[in-house]
Design brief:
This is Alkanesulfonate monooxygenase SsuD/methylene tetrahydromethanopterin reductase-like flavin-dependent oxidoreductase (Luciferase family). With about 400 residues, the chain is α/β, with parallel strands linked by helices. The chain has 13 helices and 13 strands.
């Protein structure tokens, strides 16, 4: 092969990323609340040998507004818990990575660490976690422990908003640090199961993390023994300098949102600069570009599908990520161009599920293989192995032997 093969992921959300997806989906509108639906999606993604899938989640109902319910009755509202979905998928899949999303703003890191480490155990080393901040007044209202002022999109550059965003990401950084320390708090060989002496664990190989910060005070250790990957994969979605720095400090994968080839190169340069600024010593971030995809047999048919979805939605669909409408072959060409521009791979967001996911796995993936850009199957191993990330030793084990 003349080019390095790319990583390929799929982002699953409801019946698709277009707000009107449920109107044209092959799946019944009630299917997204069933295990069978999610099993089918995961099986299809694994059929295409995709590296991983992510599962969206939020602490508030879906909305088209910046903060709180929008009153619309013509769009999907309601979802299942992402971590619980991933746990359901773990025993029914064999190779694909499973990365649920949780909020760092209103969720205790001790709970997250236990849930994701458990997912890593039951999946045989295929778990990940996408932390996200909850910046809305509506979500804060569900918990009553803090007040977050309503978000005004016209005042994002004002000092109060900049401070709020900075604080939320600083809190998220501490949350990830706590989770990672808890994942390390059991050494790999802490469970000894020594029947003659009656010792199940070696207490010297369990460690207090003793973390004290502005938002959290956590003693540890965790209740879950160290998982197959040691550190499950952490992924972050980033659009600008603050989340780029967050990803550079705390993540293994960063999902970015370029609009064209030139923008790809600029974003990758900014991510690498952020890594240098924060003094990153871990393996370089795997940079995956997000793209909403709407596929059909011809460009005309794809445009018609998009037009029809927008008509049902009542306006043109826009997203934080660029939207591609065209043929699978055209998409494969675009992915090849962006890959050459510097991204390590892609997280595709199907506009309609399962329709566009099936097009990705059964047509786009073979087209990428024909171009020498994607592997023919799974090589085996953990999600870290698949992504080319080393398995880190427990920081406490390293400290004990230093």
């Amino acid at each position: 092969m003349t080019e390095k093969t790319l990583h390929l992921a799929v982002a699953l959300d409801g019946l698709g990323w277009h707000p009107a997806a449920w109107r044209l989906s092959r799946a019944d509108a009630t299917a997204l609340l069933t295990a069978r639906y999610w099993n089918t999606l995961a099986g299809e993604a694994e059929r295409g040998a995709l590296d991983l899938l992510t599962i969206e989640d939020s602490l508030g109902l879906q909305t088209s507004g910046p903060d709180g319910p929008d009153g619309r009755l013509d769009q999907v509202r309601g979802r299942l818990d992402a971590v619980q979905i991933a746990a359901r998928l773990a025993p029914l899949t064999r190779h694909i990575g499973l990365i649920p999303t949780t909020s760092t703003t209103h969720t205790e890191p001790f709970h997250v660490s236990s849930a994701v480490a458990t997912l890593d155990h039951v999946s045989g080393g295929r778990a990940g976690w996408r932390p996200r901040v909850s910046a809305t007044h509506a979500e804060a209202g569900h918990f009553g422990r803090r007040d977050i002022p309503p978000l005004d999109l016209s005042r994002l550059d004002e000092p109060e908003t900049v401070q709020l965003v900075g604080d939320l990401f600083a809190e998220a950084g501490d949350a990830v640090e706590v989770v990672r320390r808890l994942w390390d708090s059991w050494q790999d060989d802490a469970v000894i199961r020594d029947v003659p002496t009656g010792r199940f664990v070696d207490r010297e190989r369990l460690h207090y993390i003793d973390f004290t910060g502005q938002w959290f005070s956590v003693k540890g250790p965790t209740i879950v023994p160290r998982s197959p990957q040691g550190q499950p994969v952490v992924a972050a979605l980033a659009h600008s300098s603050v989340p780029y720095a967050f990803a550079a400090r705390h993540a293994d994968i960063v999902f970015v949102t370029p609009v064209d080839t030139e923008h790809v190169a600029a974003i990758v340069a900014e991510v690498r600069a952020a890594e240098e600024t924060v003094g990153r010593t871990d393996a370089p971030l795997r940079v995956l570009a997000d793209l909403v995809v709407l596929l059909d047999e011809t460009p005309t048919l794809a445009r018609r599908r998009r037009t029809r979805l927008d008509e049902l939605h009542g306006e043109e669909f826009t997203s934080d990520a660029a939207t591609f409408a065209g043929t699978p072959g055209q998409l494969a060409d675009l992915l090849a161009d962006w890959h050459r521009a510097g991204v390590d791979g892609f997280r595709l967001r199907p506009a309609v599920l399962p329709n566009d996911l099936t097009a990705i796995t059964r047509v786009v993936v073979p087209a990428l293989r024909d171009r020498g850009l994607f592997r023919a199957g799974y090589p085996g191993g953990t999600l870290r192995d698949l992504l080319g990330l080393p398995r880190p030793a427990s920081r406490y084990a390293v400290a004990a032997t230093a």
